[in-house]
Amino acid sequence: MSASLARDLACIDCGAVHALGYRLECGKCQGLLELRYDVDELRRHGPALLGGAGLWRYAPVLPIADPAHRVTLGEGGTPLLDCPRLATRLGVRRLLLKCEGANPTGTVKDRTSATAVAAALQFGFTATSVVSSGNAGSSVAAYSARAGLRSLVFAYERASAPKLLHMAATATDLVIYRGVYDDLIGLWDRLVEERLFFDCGASRNPYKHEGKKTLAYEIAEQTAWQPPDVVVAPVAVGETFIATARGFREMRDAGWIERAPLMVAAQATRANAVSRAFRSGGPVVPLTIGYTVAEGLASGHPGRKGAWALRLLREGGGVAGDAEDEAILAAQRLLAREEGVWAGPTGVATLAVLIRLLEERLVDPAQTICAIVTETGLKTEAETPSRAGTAFDEDSLRRLVRDRLGR
Length: 407
Ligand SMILES: [Zn+2]
Known about the structure:
By secondary structure, this protein is α/β, with parallel strands linked by helices.
């Protein structure tokens, strides 16, 4: 396995540099920290540095030094599907979908759970914790179990039954919480300082965050290092968006790709703090939010990462948009019928937002566009189709088949 080229942690606000270690904020200004790598080595060796399959193929650009700590359930290496039928339907030259539902627990979160739990081992922790609407909880619990660590998972009371079942099966300690994510995460973030558990939350931990950077590396490698013109990523707190944007920038700086794609930030309209700020030209203003079908995007207070996502959008000439719940559910049906991909509402919010931005002419359809579909639909709870059955004899069955197929 390849060595990690992680070199230090840099503050995204004041630029102060910190030695590698379990550190969540800048010691000088409390800014968020970003892992940095030996760019000269990356430039010198290029993609030849990569080896093996899955997420740990990108170990040189991940912060886990000892291969023994690199916990895996087979995450990463997810399909990048070319979708000509859907592209034609939307009037887009070429549409690619990065299907993250193919990860071991059915979500993109497995990428960050892998590096978070690996970092927990690296820094000698025996327990992990996370506050979750469902996907992160089951993913962190599964990876903690795989690594032999305790997991204290706080799950949203409205989490879907399949997600709750999954968490109950894999977590050592599952606690159901009432109220909204934004309130509990504020309290929980303060407890992180006491080091009772390893922080598997999305707000600050640069080691956890880093796993999702592999999305950018995979998309680039799957397109022969000529990545799409546009990449649409979801924003709840901003982890997937920021990590993907950083991955592309890192490859560009190391000369692995010529240019970084234009990034589009996708939110649910019912939790659209970043998208609103982008349109207004001002800072992110926290929102009090209600329920959205895109449960994983239900954050009205993205905190400092929201500001970071906004900064990346503005620096990179990106676009932000949001979609109503009805449009998200319509995109879910469209994707299932047109391409056979069954994704959850959180996962297809990117597609719904892309459709809206194309209608508003804010995204150029003459480009190659990639949307990240972050979760499977198999963990979604929704009204099931009618179970009223029909009994057949040979004649009635033949009539039905001929009638339905028009033969
Ligand atoms: Zn700082």
